[in-house]
Write a structure and sequence with these properties.
The chain is α/β, with parallel strands linked by helices and about 350 residues long. Among the domains are: about 5-115, Cobalt-precorrin-4 Transmethylase, domain 1 (3-Layer(aba) Sandwich); about 120-225, Methyltransferase, Cobalt-precorrin-4 Transmethylase, Domain 2, CATH 3.30.950. About 30% of the residues lie in helices and about 15% in strands. It is built from 12 helices and 10 strands. It has helices at about 20-30, 45-50, 65-75, 95-105, 115-125, 150, 165-175, 205-210, 235-240, 255-265, 270-280, 285-300; strands at about 5-10, 35, 55-60, 80-85, 110, 135-140, 155-165, 185-190, 195-200, 220-225. The chain has a 5-stranded parallel β-sheet, with helices on both faces. Strands 6-7-10-8-9 form a 5-stranded mixed β-sheet, with helices on both faces. α10 crosses α11. The longest helix has 14 residues, at about 65-75.
């Protein structure tokens, strides 16, 4: 306990239990009394950090007079009180009025900032909402909703928390201030929580979208060109014209060599992946001819290999078969003898 009693106004973030700051979690762990609204802050955020003997007060079930009595009791008993606010406690939730009341009661007061709902919604849609032509963002709370038309005339990005039941009046003031019906709008409800809803629409369709999703409680609207949904790029193969031929990827020198090696290996088993690669990278005859010409230009001229000598052998005429007579039927004729010359 403190010497004078302390009240801490803690921003619990957009709603998720793990988006509270370390300082905010420490304040909850030190508190004797925790005042919070289950509809705005995740119950896990309180159960995880609050002490077992801490008094938990549902803000939606008590009056402002009862809250003031809790502050008075804290001042008299030197208790620590945490008042949880959704989002950032320093930018909304009527913290200023309660802050001044606690100071008058003699309590020590501090404000712990939190992750703003606007920041969580911008992070959800992936847009930096301050990067507009005017480089500014107008924040509008429910209390200042009557000034929507005046702020709309600035034509900057607008972040307005408005009751869903009053969306029709909100749209009328946007149009009155100068926004067109085609102006982009993001509807952000319970961002970061399990039942969050984030919808891209326009000013002209805003009221019908809210009715469709039955959003009657306070809802965050981001209005302006900065929240326009980015155009997604589609692959060229999906958008190619039917008449336009699809160009196959040009095979490289290495893919052609691999395909050649695979096709020549007939006896060896070929993996299925290699066969697929060979089929995809089948060389184009025109490209092969170009590659051969380029290689012949790049490589130095080499001496032609000596041609093997050819020996021409004349074919011999076939000899007629020799017929030999049998010894029993044919005899060899004796050789003719020259006649002797007579003696003179």
């Amino acid at each position: 306990m403190t010497t004078t009693g302390r009240v801490s106004f803690v921003g619990a973030g957009p709603g998720a239990a793990d988006l509270i700051t370390l300082r905010g979690a420490r304040r909850i762990a030190e508190a004797d009394v925790v005042i919070w609204a289950p509809a705005a802050v995740d119950a896990e955020c309180v159960r995880e950090h609050a002490r077992a003997d801490a008094e938990l007060v549902d803000f939606s079930r008590v009056t402002q007079e009862e809250i003031t009595d809790i502050y008075r009791r804290a001042a008299a008993s030197r208790q620590t009180v945490v008042r949880l606010h959704a989002g950032d406690a320093a930018t909304g939730g009527r913290v200023q009025e309660q802050h001044d009341l606690c100071v008058r009661l003699g309590l020590e007061v501090d404000v712990v900032p939190g992750v703003a709902v606007v920041a969580a919604a911008a992070a959800k849609i992936g847009r930096e909402i301050t990067l507009t032509e005017a480089s500014s963002t107008v924040l509008i709370s429910p209390e200042s909703s009557e000034l929507v038309a005046e702020f709309a005339a600035l034509q900057t990005t607008m972040a307005a928390t408005v009751s869903g039941a009053r969306t029709g009046q909100f749209v009328e003031k946007l149009l009155q201030g100068g926004y067109s019906e085609q102006t982009p709008v993001v509807v952000a409800y319970k961002v970061s929580q399990a039942d969050e809803l984030v919808v891209h629409t326009t000013v002209g369709e805003l009221e019908s979208v809210v009715k469709k999703h039955k959003l009657y409680r306070p809802t965050l609207f981001l209005v302006g060109a900065a929240v326009k949904q980015p155009t997604r790029r589609v692959s060229t193969s999906a958008t190619s014209s039917v008449d336009e031929p699809i160009r196959a990827a040009r095979p490289t020198r290495w893919s052609r060599r691999a395909a050649t090696r695979i096709s020549t290996r007939v006896d060896e088993p070929v993996p299925a992946a290699a066969v697929t690669a060979a089929a995809v990278t089948e060389p184009n005859p025109a490209w092969t001819a170009v590659e051969e010409i380029q290689q012949s230009v790049r490589k130095p001229a080499e001496e032609p290999a000596p041609k093997p000598k050819l020996t021409v052998v004349a074919a011999e005429k076939p000899k007629p078969p020799t017929v030999r007579a049998s010894t029993s039927t044919a005899k060899k004729k004796p050789a003719a003898r020259k006649p002797k010359r007579p003696n003179s």
